[in-house]
């Protein structure tokens, strides 16, 4: 049974009674001065501050996650762009290699054609020079024969016939 239900507790000489009365008066003063309201206001202020800090942390976390997603997207785009650039560079290199091969083959063909033309020209020139030398030798031989004939004053019909045909055969 609680002590305040007994008759001894309500005795004015009892120290426990006066402790109880002091306690009730103390709580009454606290209520009159509105201490519970102040404590509640401070607790509400602290709760509001904590809630705003939590909201700020949640906002910062959302921003960080959005920034991370954006960075991952940009990284993926950069990697894709780098891969595209690499493919384009490889294609350009292959195209340049093919162009260089074609140009080299064309240059070699031009040089071969030029060399063949020069060879043909040299052959034609050599043939002309041989013909000219043969003609000069024939003319010289004819002059020698004519000079010898004139010196001996004898006529040789074979020589006369050969001299007559010389103009048509040399040209």
Tell me the count of domains: 1
Instruction: Give the structural class.
Output: mainly alpha
Q: Taking Cα atoms only, what radius of gyration do you get, to the nearest Å?
A: 65 Å
- Straight-line distance between termini: 162 Å
What oligomeric arrangement do these chains adopt? Answer: single chain
H/E element string?
Answer: HHH
Q: What's the total count of β strands?
A: 0
What is the overall shape? rod-shaped
Name the beta content range: under 5%
Individual helix count:
3
Average pLDDT, rounded to a whole number, is 87
| Uncertain stretches of 5 or more adjacent residues | none
Describe the largest sheet. none
- The proportion of residues forming helix, as a percent range, comes to over 70%
Describe the structure.
This protein has one domain (34-170). Helices cover 88% and strands 0% of the residues. The chain has 3 helices and no strands. The protein has helices at residues 15-32, 35-152, 157-170. The mean pLDDT is 87.
């Amino acid at each position: 049974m609680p002590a305040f239900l007994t008759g001894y507790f309500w005795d004015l000489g009892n120290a426990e009674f006066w402790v109880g009365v002091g306690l009730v008066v103390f709580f009454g003063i606290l209520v009159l001065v509105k201490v519970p309201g102040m404590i509640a206001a401070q607790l509400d202020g602290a709760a509001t501050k904590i809630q705003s800090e939590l909201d700020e942390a949640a906002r910062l976390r959302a921003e960080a996650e959005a920034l991370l997603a954006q960075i991952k997207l940009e990284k993926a785009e950069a990697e894709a762009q780098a891969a595209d650039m690499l493919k384009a560079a490889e294609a350009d290199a292959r195209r340049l290699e093919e162009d260089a091969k074609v140009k080299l083959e064309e240059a070699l063909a031009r040089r071969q054609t030029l060399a063949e033309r020069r060879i043909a020209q040299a052959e034609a020139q050599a043939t002309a020079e041989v013909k000219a030398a043969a003609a000069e030798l024939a003319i010289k031989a004819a002059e020698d024969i004519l000079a010898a004939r004139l010196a001996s004053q004898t006529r040789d019909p074979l020589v006369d016939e050969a001299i007559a045909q010389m103009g048509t055969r040399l040209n």
